[in-house]
Design goal:
Length: about 220
């Protein structure tokens, strides 16, 4: 029986992957005169800033001074774009959260993004009241695709792992859910790049009424 639903953030609750790639592409060009290739960026989807930092150093020889400075630069760039163009919310997601909350399920965010960015995004979009806990990649030693983020989220909800369902959009997230022994629903967001979650028990393309109906039906039958 499902008692809790754990959501990844980027690509699931907010459509941020195109925004994140654009931010890093502009940052690397402006600060280091590097042309950041999208194929290099793809493995970063669903992982942490430290993973990104290591990957950029490996491929381009760029070494950000430290994570705090790297996050500061990203925050400034992201704020500039969001201020000019608005925040990339996922249409229909609030309806999904509202229905699940009204049905009595505990809800959590478990994302590899920094905690400050999760809190900012959920607050800006008015989604914070739906969640019982927030877990960031900052809070665990081993990020996705390791299970730590989801395991900590379940612990904070005080719900056994086999009573938790994960909603993910990335290959790394799907692997993390499987490693945590949690069933996973794949929100197949085309903006999240070439992802694959072969063990997903349900695939939905978006938070449409049909997608939400399929998710609710699945949860009720589990």
């Amino acid at each position: 029986m499902i008692k809790a639903v754990i959501f990844d953030m980027d690509g699931v609750l907010i459509d941020t992957e195109p925004l994140h790639y654009r931010c890093w592409k502009e940052i690397l060009k402006e600060h280091y005169d590097v042309e950041f290739d999208y194929d290099i960026y793809l493995p970063c989807i669903g992982s942490t800033r430290q993973f990104f930092r290591d990957l950029v150093k490996e491929h381009y020889g760029v070494d950000f001074p430290d994570l705090d400075e790297m996050n500061r630069i990203m925050k400034v760039k992201k704020s500039q774009i969001v201020k000019a163009e608005g925040f990339p919310e996922m249409p229909g997601v609030e309806n999904a959260l509202k229905q699940l909350k009204e049905m009595g399920y505990k809800l959590a965010v478990a994302s590899s993004s920094p905690e400050s960015e999760i809190m900012d995004a959920m607050t800006r979009l008015g989604l914070m009241p739906y969640f019982d806990s927030i877990t960031s990649g900052d809070h665990v030693e081993h990020p996705k695709p390791e299970p730590d983020t989801f395991l900590l989220a379940a612990e904070r909800l005080n719900v056994p792992t086999d009573n938790c369902l994960v909603i993910e959009d990335s290959t790394n997230g799907g692997r993390a859910a499987r490693a945590a022994k949690m069933d996973c629903v794949w929100l197949h967001n085309p903006h999240s790049g070439h992802q694959d979650i072969p063990n997903a028990i349900l695939e939905i393309p978006a938070w449409t009424e049909d997608g939400i109906e399929k998710l609710v039906k699945l949860i009720q039958e589990m």
